[in-house]
Structure formats: C-alpha cells, structure tokens
Prior knowledge:
With 360 residues, this protein is α/β, with parallel strands linked by helices. The protein is built from 15 helices and eight strands. Helix 1 links the parallel strand 1 and strand 2.
Amino acid sequence: MSNLLLSIIVPVSDAGSTLSRTLASIVASDLSRSAFEVIVVDDASTDGSAQIAARYADTVMRLSGSKCGAAYARNRGAEIARGNVIAFVDPDIVVHADTLPRMLRRLSTQSSIDAVTASHAQPDPADGWLSQYWKLLHRLGERAKGTSANVASPCAAIRRDVFLAMGMYDEWRFASASLEGIELGNRLEAQGHGAMLVRDADVQPLRAWNVIQMIREVWRRSALLARSLGYHRTRESVPSEVVFTLSRPAAPAFAAVCALALSAAIVPQPSVLVTLAFILIGAAIINGRATAYFARERGWGFALALAPLHLLMQCVSGLGLCAGWVLRDAIGDRKPDATTQAYAEVGHETWPPVPRSSGR
C-alpha cells in the first residue's frame, strides 16, 4: 500500500456548511500526509467554499461562470492529479480514519479490482427521522448481493490510469450529481475491470434531508436510470442503488392494488380509517424486508411510522421509471449540446467527452 500515492478530489458547489468537516476528516486519516494530496474543485460557489478549502487542500481549482456539475468538476481535478489512485469524496460526508486505508488496501491486494466504493455508516441518532430513513435506505441497498459498480458518491477510489483510459465521467449527460458513477461503473465492467463495494470501509453522510428533497432525488434518479442506463443491466451491476431498493417490491405491490380494487367491487365501502389501516398494513407486508430492517435498526415504532413515507417513495420511483422508459422510447437518450456534438463529429474525444451508448 505504501507505493500508492493517492489523489483525493473533492468537488464542491456551495457546500460551505459541511466542507470544513469533510476536509478535516480527510486530513485526519490514518494515512501519512505525504502519501496523498487533496484537490478541491470549486464549481462556481458563492458561499466562500474556496476559502474554506484553502485551509486544508494542497490545490484549489476554481471554476467560474455557470455551475457545471460534480462529474465535470471531478474530471478537471483528475486531469491535474498526480496519484496512482484517485479518490472522489463528496463535500458533505465525514471520512472515518480507516476508510481510505481500507480502500487502498483492497486495491493493492486484489489486482482484479480497479475501483472501490465506501459504504454508508450507521446514521447518527441525532439526525432527524427523515434523514435517518434516507441513510438507512442506502444501507439496506448495500446488503444486496452482487457487485456495486458505483464509482462516485459518497466516496470511491479508482486506479488513475484506468480512469483516464475509460474517458473519465460522462459529464455532458450528468450535469447534476446523480448517476455518473454508475454509468462509469457499467463501462468499467463492460471492459473487464472489477469494481466493488467495500463494506468495512464506511463514511458518515452529513446532509439533512426533507420530504421534498427526497422526492426530487428519487424522481431524478429513477427517470434518468430508465432513460439513459437501462434498468435491468444496471440492477445486475449496482443492486445497492436506491432506485432498486425502492422498486424491488413493485410487482407484489401492483398485485395487492389489483386485489384491493377487486375486493372493493364486492365488499361494502369501509370507512376511511379502515381503508387507510389496510393500506398501511399491506405496505408493511409487501415491504417486509425493509420493515424488518428498519425495526431492527430503530424499533417497530420507527418502522411503522415510516410505512407511509416509504410507500410514497416507492410510488415516486415507479412513476419516475415509467417516465424514463417513455422518454427513452419516444425521444431516446439525452443528446449532447451543440458544442460537444461538433467536437465529436471532428473526432476530438478528449474534451468535451463524446456521447456513449448505453443498453437497456
């Protein structure tokens, strides 16, 4: 592991409220400070993030003009990185002291693995219950069997030569932080490069979530996944993705709705409270695995209180997937802007990146 010089790239855009804790945790890692460099790429922040970064980072790259997105920022940081391995760390997480060493150890001892991703730590009990739900949802997904080729959020590391050879992140299709890491992971596995989730290397997310933010995130991820990446192929390589955690019970849920609709035709109409009780009980049964997991982690009161929220997220995910499939069939995948397309037509494949195809 000592021969691996690590470049840690932190893309930031108006994350001043958490950036200091993130960078402090990186610097406090169980790695020798001479063994890694910290590169912060400031994506047109207006809140002083660059000034905060200057207290910890070896290099601060400031991008001016309009915001370009995390994929773009990570790519610019990778272009100036000196390490044999590049780690991408989100600006709103705390890296535990042994997280980066464990990830590097996995890369140094398993030559067949070229990229690794950290897992989510247990949520802080001080977090609000909505944030605890969102973080536990990610941990539930990480219990799924299979690989996890998501080379991005919240913390991932990849061999630099492999990252550059693969063309880096697809920054034109993923202008906002979303599924660019999964798309890169799919490309890696298609070319025979191993990628995996390191379950004993975890990070602590700091972001607080509310219902509106979760709805937007689930909708965006679901629609983009169905339209650009393909549901079935991506589920095989990244079973931990939150969209799959929400959509796995979709078939039994649909069957339950049909049964309820049929019974309504032959059973006298019950009261609103009875109907609501049946819906919640049905949701808990259909989501038995998730309900049991939430109960085990936070108690049955927490798990039952989450049932309506979890059902809502599943509905949003289902609608988002349908919207993505419709857009894919009616319009096709997202197209690059005119400048990117012009570069592609003359054969320039380094900058801007050339569109890449993705199967269903």
